[in-house]
Amino acid sequence: NAPMALEAGYLIQGAVFDLQTNRLVGGSLEAGPYDEPWRTTLFADVDRQSRDALLAATGAYHIAAWHFPRFLGQRYLNRYLWENFNGQPLADPLQVDTNGAAADFYLTPISYIRGVVTGDGSPLSNVMVEASMGWDRVDFNTTGPDGSYELGVLAGTNYTVLARPSSESFWMYQYYSNKYYMEEANRVATSTNSPAENINFSLLLGGR
C-alpha cells in the first residue's frame, strides 16, 4: 500500500466573551472553507475557561460562535446571519497560516419574540413568521403543530413581524397588529429581560 501524506494542522485559538468581557461557556465554534460559506468542516466545544481551539490547514475560513445560552450566535468578525440574507458577506475571512490564527468573539444578549398563528380560530402549522428591522430580515421560523413560533433577535430593538403562509394556502399574509402593509404595522419592542410575548396572528382566508 502507498503511504498516505497527511496535511499539517495549525491552531485557531481564542475565547468567547459577552459585551462586558465576561467569559462565556456552554457553546461551540464551527468553521469551514471561506469559499463554501454554508459548509462546516471544523467543530469545537468551548471549555469551562471559555477557551476554544480548532485544528485547521492553512487557508481562509469562515468561523462562528453558536449555541451560547442567552446570547445571539455570531460569525467572525461581528457579523450576524441575517446580513447575508440582505446581500452582505456571510463572514469575514479568517486567514490561517503556519502560525495558526486568533479569533475572539464578543456576543450580544438574545431576546425573543413569541406567539401563535391561527386561522378561523384553529392553530396553523408551517406558517413562516419573520422579524425585520426595516428591510433587514433578522430571524424567521415556521409555526409548529400548535401554531406557536419563537424568533431569536437582538435585544433593545423594535421589529416588524410578518406571518407568511405557504403560497399553496388560501390564508392571507399579515403583519402584526392586523395590518397588510409594513408601513402601517405596529412595531414589536424587545429587551434582554422581557421577551415580546403573545405576538399573535389571526389570519383571514383570501381568494385566488
| Overall mean pLDDT | 88
Task: Summarize the amount of helix as a percent range.
Answer: under 10%
Sheet-strand content, in percent, reads: 35-45%
Question: How would you classify the helix and strand content by structural class?
Answer: mainly beta
> Can you summarize the main beta sheet?
5 strands, antiparallel
- Principal-axis shape equals elongated
If you compute it from the alpha carbons, what radius of gyration comes out, rounded to the nearest whole angstrom?
21 Å
Count of β-strands: 18
Run of helices and strands = EEEEEEHEEEEEEEEEEEE
Alpha carbon gap, first and last residue: 67 Å
Helical stretch count? 1
Low-confidence stretches: none
Summarize the structure.
With 208 residues, this protein is mainly beta. The chain contains one helix and 18 strands. A hairpin with an 8-residue loop joins strand 2 and strand 3 (42-45).
Helix and strand topology:
Layout: E1 10-18, E2 28-33, E3 42-45, E4 51-56, E5 59-66, E6 74-75, H1 82-85, E7 94-96, E8 101-102, E9 105-107, E10 110-119, E11 122-123, E12 128-133, E13 136-142, E14 148-154, E15 158-164, E16 174-175, E17 188-189, E18 201-203
Parallel strand pairs: 1-8, 1-9, 10-18
Antiparallel strand pairs: 1-4, 2-3, 2-5, 5-6, 5-7, 10-11, 10-14, 12-13, 12-15, 15-16, 15-17
